[in-house]
Write a structure and sequence with these properties.
Blueprint lengths: L16 E2 L13 E3 L4 H9 L6 E3 L6 E2 L7 E6 L7 H16 L3 E4 L16 E2 L2 H4 L19 H10 L2 E7 L2 H5 L11 E5 L1
Parallel strand pairs: 5-6, 5-8, 8-9
Antiparallel strand pairs: 1-4, 2-3, 6-7
Length: 193
């Protein structure tokens, strides 16, 4: 039996705000998806007195941390282009707007370059109207780039625009390009691979 992996997601604090979503099934914090699907592997953890490695189940929660009426969100697409990037952008914007009531959603052009003022890229305000048909186009309406930027410059941009949640859309390089450990307390990074 291999050593159990810890996939615990760190919390920013207690979730106290009732979700504005309605008519959906909320996930509980005790719901998980097992890493292994082989009964023998699962049994080996249980027989050793431990728990098998597991991921927190994704999905809406009944109580949330951020107040959607007071938060701005941002999106970046980084790395190589692949099918579905515009679908992801569209889905995030529509869900933030219609499910949560978030009205300030920034798209940062050209990946992390869009968060670095020295490049002069201006954020794009994303609305349901702007994203309504982008799923019919290839690539990403935000453009993309590779490479790291100065994390403090990026955090300053997010802070200036009062962005509390940044959705980073890309692969493993995208996740390495932004270090959550240096982000301002109270900010959160969500990724979509």
């Amino acid at each position: 039996m291999e050593q159990a992996k810890d996939f615990t997601i760190q919390r920013l604090g207690d979730c106290m705000i009732p979700s504005p979503m309605s008519g959906v099934r909320f996930n509980g914090d005790t719901e998980h998806v097992l890493l292994h699907n082989d009964l023998g592997a699962i049994r080996s953890y249980l027989d050793a007195g431990g728990e098998p490695p597991k991921f927190e189940a994704a999905g809406p929660r009944e109580k949330i941390f951020f107040d959607p009426s007071k938060i701005a969100c941002g999106l970046v697409t980084c790395g190589g282009l692949c099918p579905g990037l515009n679908d992801v952008i569209r889905s995030i914007v529509l869900s933030l707007y219609h499910h949560y009531g978030v009205r300030t959603i920034y798209g940062f052009p050209y990946g992390y370059e869009g968060l670095a003022p020295k490049f002069g890229h201006q954020p794009i305000m994303l609305t349901p109207r702007i994203v309504s048909h982008i799923n019919e186009m290839g690539g990403t309406i935000l453009g993309s780039s590779r490479g790291n930027q100065d994390v403090l410059e990026m955090v300053d941009t997010l802070d200036r625009l009062q962005v509390g949640i940044l959705f980073c859309i890309g692969g493993d390089g995208t996740q390495r390009g932004l270090l959550p450990s240096v982000m301002k307390p109270g900010s959160e990074v969500y990724s979509s691979v």
